[in-house]
What does this fold into?
Amino acid sequence: MRTPSTPGRPGRPIRIKVVNPNTTASMTTLVEQCARAVAGPGVTVDAVNPVTGPESIESHYDEALATPGLLAEIAAGEVEGYDGYVIACFGDPGLLAARELARGPVVGIAEAAMRSAGYLGRSFSVVTTLARTIGHAQDIAHAYGVASLCAGIHACEIPVVELERDPAARATILAACHSALVDDGSDVLVLGCAGMADLCSWLADELGVPVVDGVAAAVTVVEGLVRAGLRTSKRGELAPPPVKRRSTAYA
Ligand code: 2AL
It folds into this structure.
């Protein structure tokens, strides 16, 4: 029998950098706790957020403003020696640009959650923050090729920063998840915001269906890809961006 080989696998602990692209440090702490909770032995996870940019991302404008800070964190991560990255915002802002900068895998939480949900049931429903983010979530579900599995995307109408502050948030999200499952006839629930990550197992117990938190899903995927010695392809579209003059922090 041939000896299995895993080319490019790091011969040291795997280091994953989780970037919360908004500037709310308390949310970064929550995301880091949830990310570390699923990381395997010998895996270190550090969560960071940019110092400049919006406090939350719930519009196309927010996404555009958050992306330079996110990319600066990816570029810094390459110098710091991280093996892979998670983009911890459900719109997956800057995902393809981040892949151009990184050698290791870069996984967005929406992509990881929606793809993982496809393994767990016939169809999934998403419960997100504001209704204005639904169109973008639909767009990326199409882009990832999983739109046919997505039975519906629903808003709880709680702004991102209120997820931590609003004492009624848990009950509102639970009610939104319950009616999403009933309305859509789906059998898996996807959480549509990194700020909901800490509610995942409680919601699964309450709802009696698998609940996928994208932070946990993305960490698991990055860890698995790195363990398997797999990195971002540098052959074509995701090769490093062309060298040119750029007046940005990360050029
Ligand atoms: C998010 C998220 O995950 N982080 C953030 O700032 N906004 N998603 C959302 N649907 O509002």
User: Anything to note?
Assistant: The chain has a mean pLDDT of 96.
